From TrEMBL:
The enzyme's E.C. designation: 2.3.1.199
Family note: Belongs to the ELO family. ELOVL2 subfamily.
Cross-referenced PROSITE patterns: ELO
Annotated protein name in UniProt: Elongation of very long chain fatty acids protein 2
Keywords per UniProt: Endoplasmic reticulum, Fatty acid biosynthesis, Fatty acid metabolism, Lipid biosynthesis, Lipid metabolism, Membrane, Transferase, Transmembrane, Transmembrane helix
Family annotation (PANTHER family): ELONGATION OF VERY LONG CHAIN FATTY ACIDS PROTEIN 2 (PTHR11157:SF16), FATTY ACID ACYL TRANSFERASE-RELATED (PTHR11157)
Functional summary from the UniProt entry: Catalyzes the first and rate-limiting reaction of the four reactions that constitute the long-chain fatty acids elongation cycle. This endoplasmic reticulum-bound enzymatic process allows the addition of 2 carbons to the chain of long- and very long-chain fatty acids (VLCFAs) per cycle. Acts specifically toward polyunsaturated acyl-CoA with the higher activity toward C20:4(n-6) acyl-CoA. Condensing enzyme that catalyzes the synthesis of polyunsaturated very long chain fatty acid (C20- and C22-PUFA).
Pfam families xref list: ELO
Amino acid sequence: MNHLEKIDRLLNSILDSLFGERDTRVRGWLLLDSYTPTFMLTITYLLTIYLGTKYMRNRPAYSLKNVLLLYNFSITMLSLYMLVELISSVWSAGYRLQCQGLQEAGEADIRVAKVLWWYYFSKLIEFLDTIFIVLRKKNNQISFLHVYHHASMFNIWWCVLNWIPCGQSFFGPMLNSFIHVLMYSYYGLSTIPSMHKYLWWKRYLTQAQLVQFLLTITHTVSAWVVPCGFPLGCLKFQTFYMCTLVVLFVNFYVQTYKKRKLEGDRIAKVGDLKNSHSNGLSSSLNGANSKQKLQ
């Protein structure tokens, strides 16, 4: 047995001991049978950020305008597909909004799981968000929140697909897909200079994300109050994870828009001082001119 096989067995045995028996309905699905590919892709993602920023340090930034337009449009379409398919599948399956178990809808649960697999896979695709930031040398955008959110979601959703691939798990991805339709539409439009004047609603995207997290927490906690057989440990973990995102996004929102407001106030004060100085100078000159005329 080589080292990779040992690592693979170790990683999967740890997860199996933590979470128990996996859901057999997703056996054989791409990337799901072993945690190792997801783990290694995440490590590669983190190394790419670290090494990529070093590589780009003394090199000119790439524009990637057309690439970003295509990428953001593609993610928008994928998000729209997941949103529509989730709404359609849970509606036709008769899912309950408050709490839905894992084994209640038969084949309809498989349909939901298939959409959630695409949601999991989309988190891998979204690693490109950060890669493009590195190539464009927008390193100020590579925050802890950004990396934490991207890396953790991909790994969490591998676990979700293996142990809780349907039922109550549908709600967060449905909301998130809606948010991503708006968000990636915004990013795509921002690559078109003529559209910039219509993109005044950026700050509301962060607000919408916060509302999304709060709704997901509410939905999750409701299943504690009126249980339906969905694993309680998973509900507790999701609540905790969503709370970390709320804290980080609130901090981001406050830091970003408070800083902009302070900067705007500073510029306004400088402008007032300049106007005051100009008016004072103008008055002095007018006074001097009047004095000369009298003489």
